[in-house]
Write a structure and sequence with these properties.
CATH architecture: 3-Layer(aba) Sandwich
Radius of gyration: 18 Å
Number of strands: 7
Shape: globular
Distance between the termini: 38 Å
CATH topology: Rossmann fold
Number of domains: 1
Helix content: 40-55%
CATH superfamily: NAD(P)-binding Rossmann-like Domain
C-alpha cells in the first residue's frame, strides 16, 4: 500500500537499533527523509553502511543542550520537520520501591518522560509549518496497567500518555496530531533483560517468568519492531489525519503485567 508520504521529513529518537531503527527503515521504504539520533555512537556509525539513507546524530534526549544540537542538525539536513517519533527510553531499575536508588528513579523519568518534552518543545515550531504534522510518543503497556517492581518505568510511561493527551488538545488547532503507542512484550534483548531481572527478583526461572508474562495476553507471541513501525507510519500518513490524542495498544491483548 502506498502511504503517500514520499518526502515526509521525520526525526526518530533512539533510532540506531531496535524499535527506533525499525521505524526509521519503514519510513525510508515509503520514501520519507529520516534523521535518527542515539546515545550509541558505534551503532550510529554502523548505519553508514547498513542504512546510508539515514542521516544521524549522537544525542542523549535527557541533555537539553544535546537536544538543541540535534535539532539544528536534523532541521538543517531535512529542510524542515513533519514527524517526530519520540522513541528514546530506558528500562530503568527493577526492584521494590524501597530498594530503588533515587538516582535510578530520576534517570528513568528524565530519559523516558522529560526527554520527550525536550524534543517536542523544539519540534513544535517546525511542525506548525507542515501540512501533515504529527508526533508519536512511545509509551508502554506499563503506562496502562502499572508494573510491579518497575515503578519508575511505569510512572514515566503513564506520564507519556498524559503528555500525549495534553499536547493533542493544545496542538489540534494547528493541525498537529499527537498519539501514543503502547507496546506489550516486544521481541529483543531489552525485553529479555527485563524478564530476566523480574525472574531474579521473584526467584523463578526465565522460562517461568516468560510463561507468566504471556499468561496475561490473548496472543501468546512477542510484538515486533516492524509491527510497531507499520502502526506509526500509518499514523504519520494522511490516512491518519483525524487520529489524535489516542493511546494505541499493540500488545496481543494484554490484560495486566505481572
Amino acid at each position: 500500500m502506498d502511504m503517500g508520504i514520499a518526502g515526509l521529513r521525520v526525526l526518530v529518537t533512539a533510532g540506531a537499533a531496535g524499535i527506533g531503527l525499525g521505524v526509521a527503515r519503514a519510513f525510508v521504504r515509503e520514501g520519507a527523509k529520516v534523521h535518527v539520533c542515539d546515545v550509541d555512537r558505534t551503532a550510529l556509525d554502523a548505519l553508514a553502511s547498513s542504512d546510508p539513507a539515514l542521516s544521524r546524530s549522537v544525542c542523549d534526549v535527557a541533555d537539553r543542550e544535546a537536544v538543541a544540537s540535534l535539532f539544528d542538525a536534523a532541521i538543517g539536513t531535512l529542510g524542515g520537520l513533519d514527524v517526530l517519533v519520540n522513541n528514546a527510553g530506558i528500562a530503568g531499575p527493577t526492584g521494590r520501591v524501597e530498594e530503588i536508588h533515587p538516582d535510578d528513579w530520576d534517570r528513568c523519568l528524565t530519559v523516558c518522560l522529560t526527554g520527550q518534552f525536550n524534543c517536542a518543545r523544539l519540534a513544535v515550531p517546525h511542525l506548525r509549518k507542515s501540512q501533515n504534522a504529527s508526533i508519536v510518543n512511545l509509551s508502554s503497556a506499563a503506562g496502562k496497567y502499572g508494573f510491579a517492581m518497575r515503578a519508575p518505568y511505569a510512572a514515566a510511561k503513564w506520564g507519556v500518555i498524559g503528555f500525549t493527551k495534553s499536547l493533542a488538545i493544545e496542538l489540534g488547532d494547528a493541525g498537529i496530531r499527537v498519539n501514543a503507542i503502547l507496546p506489550g512484550l516486544v521481541a529483543g534483548d531489552r525485553q529479555r533483560r527485563v524478564l530476566e531481572a523480574k525472574a531474579q527478583q521473584l526467584g523463578i526461572s526465565y522460562k517461568e517468568m516468560e510463561a507468566r508474562a504471556f499468561s496475561f495476553t490473548s496472543i501468546k507471541d512477542y510484538v515486533t519492531a516492524e509491527q510497531l513501525a507499520d502502526q506509526i507510519v500509518f499514523l504519520a500518513s494522511a490516512r491518519g489525519r483525524t487520529i489524535s490524542g489516542q493511546a494505541i495498544s499493540v500488545d496481543g491483548d494484554t490484560r495486566m503485567l505481572g
